[in-house]
Amino acid sequence: MGSGGRGWPAWLLAPSVVFVLAFFAAPVLALLMGAFRVDGGWGLSHLTAFFAEPLNREVYGRTVRLASATTLAAAILGYPASLAIVRLPARWRGWVTGLVILPLMVSPIARTYAWIVLLGRSGLVNGGLQALGATQAPVPLLYTEGAVFVGLLQLMLPLMLVSLVAALENLPADVESAARSLGATALQAFFKVTLPLSQEGLVLGGTLVFTGCVTAYITPALLGGTKVLMLETLLVQKVNGSGDLPAACVIAVLLLLTTVALNQLLLRLSAARRPRVAA
Length: 279
What we know:
Blueprint: H1 14-36, E1 37-38, E2 41-42, H2 45-52, H3 54-86, H4 90-101, H5 108-119, H6 124-131, H7 145-169, H8 175-181, H9 186-197, H10 199-214, H11 218-224, H12 231-242, H13 245-273
Antiparallel strand pairs: 1-2
Helix pairs in contact: 1-13, 3-7, 3-10, 5-11, 7-10, 7-11, 8-9, 10-13, 12-13
């Protein structure tokens, strides 16, 4: 009778299917055609031409490197912070989680400009270094990979924290104490029990952070400038500057494929570490 297993009419899915086709499938198809459609046929000439330029290879490598470093740092900082939040009393946990989410409600532009105030030649960091006698002249902190890394980490860390907190809250309260009672040290309990059981949160958080880093525009543009180009800033230059639409489509496809590859890598690593239950 045209209804699903739960008794809902199948036509109720039509609006969501149309939405996905119109606003996701069609744009992705257009990007694929722009990247691989060559003179009425299909080929890799746009892709090979893009990677033939040393600048493009450098920008792609820098983007993946900074996104990976930011994701790793977010995981290292996020796990202990998430564990501390989960172990708080329930009446405090909600407040602290709200404080973690609060930066997400602030515009990325405002948050990035705050780093310009801190890292500028006359900013607070340089002022502090000179006041302590560590340097005699301002240190160039802006328009470096370090500045972009710090800005991206501050921007994306709440996404990792929220993902890990959600995963850790679903763990049974006594699994870690049970492992400790069986002779495991604190580190053994974490790596053998807590980490494997909460790795879904790590996969989700890692995917969100990595995707946010490779697709970020404001933070690399303001903190990196023209000296630290990343794929998103290069894409804008290709479209608005040179009008090279095939190269822009290649960049967009690379962004999509890179994030999908990272997600699949995390899923495989998670599956390899997942505890197996004997039949």
